[in-house]
């Protein structure tokens, strides 16, 4: 039976890539069949998807589980196979094969029903995530991975337009504070291999006890840079656990400090890189037409600024 591409994925691809996204979606069934034959796997479950990627559970000739991941190659996805090869299964899902022409990958299969969102204890879950970040960022980024320096310069170039688009003076003042934080750390962008999107939902367990790890990271958007730029996704995930404490700023700072301690980061520098990451999200929101700073972004920034 031909692969059925989820309509939600088609809509997302069109939203992200326009006509090229539609063409990519139309070609996915044939691409999946071609790669399954080449890599000698059979599809053995329903498709899943992310924003732009189709994920197909598969079975190898020897009976072991695998996953076909098919996604367009762009500046965010191009470095994924490079990073997975560099990590070589240490802290991250293992890359089994890769098709450079299409960016498609064959990955080891993890358990999609067991991520860090299913761990009841918030602090324990965040501790696991911090340990993974420490392991992943211990590696120097390989050649060919996009750099945080490039990303930072692009952000700074768009700040004036974002300031003009924000409707409230309070938001413009916060934008200025975030920009100042980025300018302070921009001269030393770092050279570690960053995941860039490691939150609780992007950490999965193996399907059975694994001698090398209990939890593994998936879906990196690699950068070469400072590990302090890695912390914001984990701060913004499991938000209800933070608000349930009754003291959101304190809960945010405790989670932040847990990660800083586990990664052995300089706290002041990590604060500035995290504020820079908030800036990135604000700039993306403005690009999408927003005129106000999102309340979650503001809460994180103000907690770290001590307000």
Segments where pLDDT lies below 50 for 5+ residues?
none
- Please identify which CATH superfamily of the largest domain we are dealing with: Aminoglycoside phosphotransferase (APH), C-terminal lobe
Instruction: Report how far the terminal alpha carbons are from each other.
Output: 58 Å
- Supply Rg: 20 Å
Q: In percent, how helical is the residue content?
A: 40-55%
SSE topology string: HEEEEHEEEHHHEEEEHHHHH
Work out the count of structural domains: 2
Structural class: alpha+beta
Give the overall shape: globular
Mean pLDDT: 95
The beta-strand count equals 11
Number of helices: 10
Q: Architecture of the largest domain, CATH level 2?
A: Alpha-Beta Complex
Percent range for β-strand residues:
5-15%
Largest sheet: 6 strands, antiparallel
CATH topology term of the largest domain:
Aminoglycoside 3'-phosphotransferase, Chain: A, domain 2
In CATH, what is the class of the largest domain? Answer: Alpha Beta
């Amino acid at each position: 039976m031909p692969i059925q591409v989820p309509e939600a994925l088609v809509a997302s691809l069109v939203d992200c890539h326009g006509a090229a996204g539609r063409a990519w979606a139309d070609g996915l069934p044939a691409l999946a069949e071609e790669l399954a034959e080449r890599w000698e796997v059979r599809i053995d479950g329903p498709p899943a998807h992310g924003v732009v990627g189709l994920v197909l559970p598969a079975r190898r000739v020897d009976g072991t589980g695998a996953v076909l991941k098919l996604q367009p190659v762009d500046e965010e996805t191009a470095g994924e196979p490079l990073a997975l090869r560099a990590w070589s299964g240490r802290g991250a899902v293992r890359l089994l094969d890769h098709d450079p022409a299409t960016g498609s990958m064959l990955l080891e299969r993890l358990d999609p029903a067991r991520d860090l969102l299913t761990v009841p204890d918030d602090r324990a879950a965040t501790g696991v995530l911090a340990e993974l970040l420490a392991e992943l960022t211990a590696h120097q980024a390989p050649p060919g991975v996009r750099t945080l320096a490039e990303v930072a310069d692009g952000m700074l170039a768009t700040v004036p337009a974002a300031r003009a688009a924000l409707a409230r003076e309070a938001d413009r003042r916060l934008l200025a504070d975030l920009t100042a934080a980025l300018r302070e750390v921009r001269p030393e962008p770092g050279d570690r291999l960053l995941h860039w999107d490691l939150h609780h939902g992007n950490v999965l367990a193996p399907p059975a006890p694994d001698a090398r790890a209990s939890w593994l990271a998936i879906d990196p958007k690699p950068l070469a840079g400072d590990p302090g730029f890695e912390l914001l996704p984990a701060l913004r995930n499991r938000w209800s656990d933070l608000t349930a404490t009754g003291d959101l700023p304190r809960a945010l700072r405790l989670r932040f400090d847990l990660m800083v301690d586990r990664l052995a980061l300089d706290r002041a520098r990590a604060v500035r890189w995290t504020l820079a990451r908030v800036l990135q999200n604000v700039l993306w929101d403005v690009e999408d037409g927003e005129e106000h700073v999102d309340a979650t972004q503001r809460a994180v920034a103000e907690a770290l600024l001590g307000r």
